[in-house]
What does this fold into?
Amino acid sequence: MSYPSTWRLIRTAPAPGAWNMALDESILEHIHRGESIPTLRLYAWAPACLSLGHAQPFADVDVARLRAHGWDVVRRLTGGRAILHTDELTYSVTAPADDPRVAGTVLESYNRLAGALMRAVYDLGLPVEMKEHSNRSLTPMLNPVCFEVPSTYEITVDGKKLIGSAQARKKEGVLQHGSLPLHGDLTRICQALVFADAAAREQAAVRLLERATTVESVLGRVVDWETAAQAFVRGFESELGLTFEEGEVSASERARAEELVQEKYAHPSWTERS
It folds into this structure.
């Protein structure tokens, strides 16, 4: 079976975390049924939102501090650890599992998509590298912060992690999403997570700045969301041989996303699992 080189491009307005995660899953379902074509979605979050990995315990969340800051919390369909989504460009790639851009093992498809991400951020002027093997002295499951956790095919600048991505492979297909921090203080996430004491919280913030960075920190200037989005489109087109058709969320995708918000992503039984 041949797969088209044309994918849909969707840019959606900043939205709450539950809606963002529900829409990604809705698109995945529609692609599985042949009602939508493979999609790159570029988006943002409002208000700021802490997202937890699929299996991450809710006990990691400092609910009182989270609410004091006016931040949301959501659980992702994908794995990994916590990310505070604010001042960033978020992308999601949704496609059938045998589409050549995401086919193969998790690592094979992750590596292929990482090439497109590399091209995008390089286009923004960042001297990025991709590390195939990282220092794994830090035990990932014991650390709640995504950008502190080393991963295979990690995109870095001067040894600091720049893009955090995670992938889910379901019977409906492949969903990968990730975040490019554009500006702001990365250590804000430490205000949303549980630590033994204030000293431990401060140590986590110091470690985070040693291991992760933002576009602004590297370039010394702010890159706006639209500029970064255009670079992502060019990177995916050139690296994966794609042509994008600018599209919209369909009425059916929107209706299903609204159901998933109520049934799953805004429901404690999903979000607050231990």
User: Anything to note?
Assistant: The chain is about 35% helix and 20% strand. Helices lie at 17-32, 63-68, 106-123, 198-211, 215-219, 225-240, 251-265, 268-271. The first helix runs from residue 17 to 32. Residues 6-271 form a domain with the BirA Bifunctional Protein; domain 2 fold (CATH 3.30.930.10).
